[in-house]
Amino acid sequence: MDLRYDVLIVGAGHGGAQVAIMLRTQKFEGSIALIGDEPELPYERPPLSKEYFAGEKEFERIQLRPAKYWDEREVTMLLGKRVVSVDPAAHNVVTEDGETIGYGKLVWATGGSPRMLPIPGGDLPGVQGVRTRADADAMKAASETAGQIVVVGGGYIGLEAAAVLRKAGKRVILLEALDRVLARVAGNELSRFYEREHREHGVDLRLGVCVDAIEGETHVTGVRLAGGEVIPADLVIVGVGIVPAVEPLIAAGAEGGNGVLVDSLCKTSLPDIYAIGDCAAHENHFAEGVVIRLESVQNANDQANVVAKGIIGDEAPYHAIPWFWSNQYDLKLQTAGLSTGHDRAVMRSDPENRSFSVIYLKDGRVIAIDCVNATRDYVQGRMIVTAGLHATPEQLADAETPLKELLTLAHSPT
Ligand code: FAD
């Protein structure tokens, strides 16, 4: 065997980097290496559809840490290398170029690759997914010369890309298969608000449409819809989710499917192998114990911290509150909790003001909050979601009363 590390982290993204950072912060003295298939040192992914795509931030400014940081802390970076197999019994991995690397503990932090469209022409040049710096650079270069751009998918990434492109004056058509945008992550009220905003900013937003094929010989020329209409396009941006990068681990015998299954300490079913971040399927406390995968920086970082502490013998289960953000035009959306399964949504302030919140309830308990340009609600909303506050819709809708006061009311003797 060529090399061995006490902690070997596969995936040099948000979660992987945070494991190394936390281990060194906690004074772990063993050897640590990160193997990543991208050529870059770990960087922030969210700006790829926001400030970096818009040309407002240079790449250096989105690196998680400068090169010096990793050198000083003796974290070995094995970049441009892809792990293709894992041998849990021998405690080693093999890379695409045939190198065998041993480990004491293995952390699988590989995220996922963009789900592409399984239709004719879905892999033509000019059809672009968004996950890496290389993807964002390709999308940016292509958009500069493109006359008309079709975005497929009305989730966060598609909407953010559309907002950047409209700001740059591009003609944008956004296609969503469901009857509203953000259907997977937010309630109806928020979807309708964002649909209005995008239309007012000039996006040709079409809901409930099915894409049948991508047209073109050597490069995309258009998008054919189920009804036969062909929308001309010089660039097609696809934002329809990810496929978790877990094949080598599943092939090695780890439990899972849509992600690797982990317990509350982020341990997989294989000895000495953890998994974190977008690729880790876990029972989430805020989803009432349902097994889910979360795709967020918060989840990657917090699970990384659970693993690092577990490795140094300070085990504590993962119970962090999910939170998320999205920037589109001048709208800053901040979310805490998970709204899936809510039975009531309460508006706090009028969306017309472009500063409001939506609070989600289930059986009278606050389970999530979406805040648009409303940071105070977000900060206090996290507190009421964490507490699982029971409050009436009238109390929650009263924007004059700070949310944290409802906590005090709930705890004061009657
Ligand atoms: P990643 O950060 O994706 O890192 C995984 C790394 O592992 C990658 O470099 C990958 O190439 C590498 N890898 C995969 N397989 C292998 C292998 N076999 N061998 C070696 N290396 C491998 N989240 C938010 O909270 N807020 C946002 O606003 C937001 N915006 C986003 C915008 C975009 C465009 C994208 C793509 C994501 C966004 N996210 C956002 C999601 C967030 O970036 C992810 O949840 C986060 O990066 C997950 O971290 P991770 O460590 O699990 O995976």
Number of continuous helical runs: 10
Q: Ions, cofactors, ligands: which are bound?
A: flavin-adenine dinucleotide
The total beta strand count reads 26
Helix residue percentage: 10-25%
Ends distance: 69 Å
The chain-level mean pLDDT equals 96
Strand content: 25-35%
Radius of gyration computed on alpha carbons: 22 Å
Which stretches are poorly predicted, pLDDT < 50 over at least 5 residues?
none
Major β-sheet, in short? Answer: 7 strands, mixed
Shape: globular
> From the helix content, strand content and strand pairing, which structural class follows?
alpha/beta
What's the SSE blueprint?
Layout: E1 3-10, H1 14-25, E2 32-36, H2 67-72, E3 75-79, E4 83-87, E5 92-95, E6 100-108, E7 112-114, E8 127-129, H3 133-145, E9 148-152, H4 156-167, E10 171-176, H5 188-200, E11 204-207, E12 211-215, E13 222-225, E14 230-232, E15 235-238, E16 242-244, H6 247-251, E17 256-257, E18 259-261, E19 273-275, E20 280-283, E21 291-292, H7 297-311, E22 323-328, E23 331-337, E24 344-348, E25 356-362, E26 365-372, H8 375-387, H9 393-397, H10 403-411
Parallel strand pairs: 1-2, 1-6, 2-3, 6-19, 8-15, 9-10, 9-15, 10-11, 18-20
Antiparallel strand pairs: 4-5, 5-6, 7-16, 12-13, 13-14, 17-18, 20-21, 22-23, 23-26, 24-25, 25-26
Bound molecules: flavin-adenine dinucleotide.
